[in-house]
Amino acid sequence: MATKRREPWGELLMTLRPYVRHSGDHRRPAWRIRSRKLLDFLLVYIADGTGRFIIDGVEYDARPGDLFWIPPDTAHDMEGFPPSMDCPFVHFDLVYRPGDSHWEGSIPAGTLDLRSFGRRLHPPVRHPLITGLKGRIRGHTNDRVGRLVREAVAEQRRAQPWSELRLSGMIIEIVAEILRGRSGLPAAQHAHVPLVEEAAAYMRDHASEAVQVEEMAKFCELSPSHFRELFRRHFGLSPREYVCRARVARAKELMIGSPLNLTEIARRSGFASVHGLSRAFRSAEGIAPSQYRRCGSRPEDLPIEATEPPSTASGLPR
User: Each residue of 39-87: pLDDT tens digit?
Assistant: First the structure.
């Protein structure tokens, strides 16, 4: 009997048992953390703003869409330039250790000798797909990884029962998206990837408005049917589904980060009514918006939404 070829992800799946320790998602004024080493992994997504990261002696410029993967026991210096930077992040173990993973606290700047921390230092993960991750990552899935990081932050803030288990799965999903982004796409899709990504960014930023797929296809110099096909292959969603998810994500941010009522949240998120929001939210999250809002959110810890309300048009591309 022939032996089935072992897939590279199989051994990795047997190895990963992630544990999320700490996360954050807020806009920072100009900031800097001087050289230090960490006991766990750190992943930072640059959503907005610019800066400079030095990781293991290599200097990188940081700009929107970049990811930075910092392994344990790796010297790094991080800086966000004025006026501000939006950089959601997550600290995590890739291998959960019941006796050693449960610790709290932060590593101050200037800490480069970790010997006194003993077994709290995460052991090496020797799988080549993981050891190859360090420094700045630029791939076509970075945007999806950034959204997952934000979702992980929200999940940890809500602190629902079984959140730790869901967070573990989200880190595996993040790793999969990073590796997918590094593995590339079929050659036939390469020429249109930047335009499709740009169209998706526009659709996200204007999800509260009437976004027409014909306009997006024209921008990408594609027919509407070809645009839909490439979009689905690239994102795993139709343009309509993508915009609906962006609207639900915006609604989630407002539910946790603002005191607005659901009718106003529906309007600012691009839904024609609170009933439309409720249907889409139940489909995406499995619970009603009102239940989500009660699930352990702590508004006092979060910034209050202060932007002007966007357009209320409710059209969705198909």
Answer: 999 999 999 999 999 999 999 999 998 999 999 999 999 999 999 999 9
CA distance 31 to 286: 38
In Å, the largest CA–CA distance within the chain is 66
- Say whether the peptide bond before residue 83 is cis (omega within 30 degrees of 0): yes
Which letter does DSSP use for residue 95 in this model?
A: B
60: how many CB neighbours lie within 10 A of its CB?
A: 16
Q: Which of 107, 47, 50 is nearest to 82 (CA)?
A: 50
pTM of the model: 0.63
Encoding tokens for residue 37? Answer: 């080493």
Strand order across the beta sheet in which 135-137 lies? 19-24, 89-93, 41-45, 67-70, 135-137
Of the candidates 261, 267, 313, 269, which has an alpha carbon nearest to the alpha carbon of residue 290? 261
The string of DSSP codes covering 51-85 is: EEEEETTEEEEE-TT-EEEE-TT--EEEEEEEEEE
Are residues 38 and 91 in contact, defined by beta-carbon separation less than 8 angstroms?
yes
Query: For the chain, which domains are there?
Result: 12-101+122-183 (2.60.120.280), 188-301 (1.10.10.60)
Pairing of strands 135-137, 58-62: unpaired
Q: Do 284 and 249 contact (CB within 8 A), yes or no?
A: no
Q: For residue 42, give the nearest of 28, 30, 56 by alpha carbon.
A: 56
In tens, the pLDDT along 163-196 reads 999 999 999 999 999 998 877 656 556 567 778 8
How far out from the chain centre does Cα 100 lie?
26
The confidence score (pLDDT) of residue 155 equals: 94
